[in-house]
Amino acid sequence: MPEPHEMPEPHEMPEPHEVYAPESRVDPYPVYARLRAEAPVHPIRDPNGIEHYLVTRYEDARAALADPRLSRDPKHAWEALRRSGLYPEGGEGSEPHMLNSDPPDHTRMRRLVAKAFTPRRVDAMLPRVQEITDGLIDAFAPHGTADLITALAFPLPITVICELLGVPEADRAPFREWSTAALTPNYTEGAAMPPHEANRLLREYFTALVTERRRALRSAGDDTEAQPDLLSALVVASTEEGRLTELELVSTAGLLLVAGHETTVNLIGNGMLALLRHRDQLELLRSRPELLPAAVEEFLRYDGPVERAMLRVATQDLEIGGTPVPRGAIVTVGVASAHRDPDRYPDPDRLDITRGDRSHLGFGHGIHFCVGAPVSRMEGRIAVGTLLRRLPDIALDESAGLLCWRPTGVLRGLESLPVRFTPERLG
């Protein structure tokens, strides 16, 4: 058994840790490599002043994500979160969806969402996802240059999740600003709005849309599979434990909107960047498109969309990697660090689309494993595969300058990804 790693007293905690430094946004992996080598768990402080335990190694990270003693319910840390400004309204500012809950509430909500978000509904979207992808590429293919984030990686998943939920096209314009703000730390300079304000706007929008759906469903049956969209299916979904409450329904819709596209934006953007920087892997994938599913899994591991998992709170004293973690402590799982752990992945800093390893934590692990993972994987396969097929000489546009990474506290994604290619003649 490893020797316990003692946490220092609060007054000994460092200033905001270097994982939050601007240079770590560009390339966090050297910092994580050093942290992994030093200890499995590190005491760090974020720019909000929140002290937490950062888990750095794969086996500890996987175990922590599935540990029922680590709660996802923010009520266990209200005081610290309120002081930090993350939940200035306290409990009123939280969203009672399944990502912010523990069993039995989580179990009940997850079953209801799964009843509406069925494999059949996802599979039916495949032709439409291909159609959307082709249409987006049609718009920039004749020009010879593009920003893949604004031209493809963002509009594809936001269109898909909005169509799944049944959000009218005319209502979608503010969603990028709201979802970006909801995931941008409140300590970010120049942020358009604080996270709690973005969540309030999403809540107001979906409250109105749910009311509209209820009116439309009064004369319809309660067959979940027969509903025209996911939101309608959530409204009518029921189990022996009942249905989603009004607030749970609204909160769940907001969660699906934000989580349903933000990670996929980064999957497509980070994945294409990895390929463009590793031409041998790009050419291998172009010559062997049957490797696309394995390539998507490697994108999720190598430079995945999630850098650090959503915080958890210890509901009792426990140990992680031999480190004592007291009841009430906040724990953060360093997913990006775990994905470069050489004890789990041979030569972890190398992109290898033939690796074929689905053990990554890109969609989480345990009861909070992402319910939308099949949709994200499908969109990633279609987006990357279509780009390589239609734009044979696609390359980074070095003249566009340095790449910038979004200042999110949990996710890892590019602000833009400029590329160049031989213009495609359409028609």
Describe what you observe in this structure:
The longest helix has 32 residues, at 246-277. Residues 1-13 have low confidence and may be disordered. It contains 17 helices and ten strands. The N and C termini lie far apart (66 Å). It has 427 residues and is an alpha+beta fold. The radius of gyration is 22 Å and the shape is globular. The strands form three sheets. It has a five-stranded mixed β-sheet. Helix 7 (126-140) packs antiparallel against helix 9 (155-165), helix 13 crosses helix 15 and helix 13 (246-277) runs parallel beside helix 17 (373-390).
Provide the descriptors you would attach to this structure in a database record.
single chain, five-stranded mixed sheet, three-stranded antiparallel sheet, 427 residues, alpha+beta
- Radius of gyration, in Å, reads 22 Å
Shape: globular
The H/E string reads HHEEHEHHHHEHHHHHHHHEEEEHHEE
Global mean pLDDT: 88
Strand order of the largest sheet: 1-2-8-5-3
* Fraction of residues in H or I helices: 40-55%
**Ends: how far apart?**
66 Å
Estimate the strand proportion. Answer: 5-15%
Instruction: Return the structural class.
Output: alpha+beta
Number of strands: 10
Main sheet summary: 5 strands, mixed
Summarize the structure.
The protein has 427 residues and is α+β, with helices and mostly antiparallel strands.
Secondary structure layout plus pairing:
Layout: H1 22-26, H2 29-38, E1 41-45, E2 51-55, H3 58-65, E3 70-71, H4 78-84, H5 105-116, H6 119-123, H7 126-140, E4 145-147, H8 148-153, H9 155-165, H10 175-183, H11 195-217, H12 230-236, H13 246-277, H14 279-287, H15 292-302, E5 312-314, E6 318-320, E7 323-325, E8 330-333, H16 335-338, H17 373-390, E9 395-396, E10 418-420
Parallel strand pairs: 2-8
Antiparallel strand pairs: 1-2, 3-5, 4-10, 5-8, 6-7, 9-10
